[in-house]
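Q: Hi! First time doing this. I have a protein sequence and I read that you can turn it into a structure. Is that right? Here it is:
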Amino acid sequence: MAARAISSGTISFGLVSIPIKLYTAASSGGIAFNFLHNKCGSRMKQQQFCPVCEEVVQRSDLVRGYEFAKNQYVRFENDELKALEEETSKVIELEEFVPLEKVDPVYFEKTYYLGPDKGGDKPYRLLADAMAESNHVALAKYVMRGKEGLVLIRAVRGGLMLHTMYYADEVRDFDEIERGQTVRIKDGERDLAVRLINELVRKEFHPENYHDEYKERVLRLVEQKVEGKEVTALEPQVRQSQVVDLMEALKASLEQRDGAAKSKPRPARAAARTPKAPAAEAGITFEEFQTAVGESGLEVGAAELKRSFNGLTSLKKRKKLAADDVRAKVVNLRKDLEVVRSDPDLFGSAPKKLKAARIPLTGRDWERY
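A: Yes, that's right. Below is the predicted 3D structure, encoded as structure tokens:
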């Protein structure tokens, strides 16, 4: 389906005017639910209710009001508000150019694509090329939906993109937020954190690698309900604690020191009286996995152990990992757990029996190993 413009306007650049069209760049793909009457299943409708007159008010009987004092309002008709908008409200006057890296992303609100309108191809192309070559972005004022706002225009992939922005007085002062200023960080901990960052650095951002897993789970559940299948409750997602970040930092440092990414584990000794778990095609049997974790000297609950192994199995299938890659991930986990046992002070109060959040439980958790 061809993109449909939601508005039109003009970019004013010195003595050059560029007719443009405004297109929505992105929209939320989240799941939306409707409220239904539990008795009959009908969808509910919202109504405006006046508590003074004790009656439902139709939309045609509503007017806008501004509260200038407690419970005191001045009224505005739609014609009055439209008259306040200047004739030049469709003009985007470029006021100044600045380097993009000097603009804090906290000021960005929404994103739109700009395309040339009739007769604007050449000046549009000129501005886009000039901005790309100068490596600067433009700041301007623009009235959208009756509200004048600050916007930023930048050259992207041979075209122009517009970001609506917050004003400075609309952004909360970060100094109001507690940021752990009183906490002391050891040099070793900072070094590990930096090494973790370097381990996870990628040259480019690939948004297609990320997807809404919650949405997928809901849609699968919807399909089951529509088909009349028995539905089992979704397992709650475990919220990872701060310790997980430090564990990952240690993992990165251990991998750098030992080159453990492709190493093979020590021969696994048989675990006595341990029943085999399903999904042994992960490249390592459940008994070997349990033994490797046990060699760390720390106990992990049976439920967490099985769930972690199933998460590793799902990752192996999804990523088509070789058996050596799967075994290397288990080696890295065992070494992480050994560090917890040898230096518990680094992690605060580390109990003997690990909590579920201390080990990878899902395929996504295992990807980091």
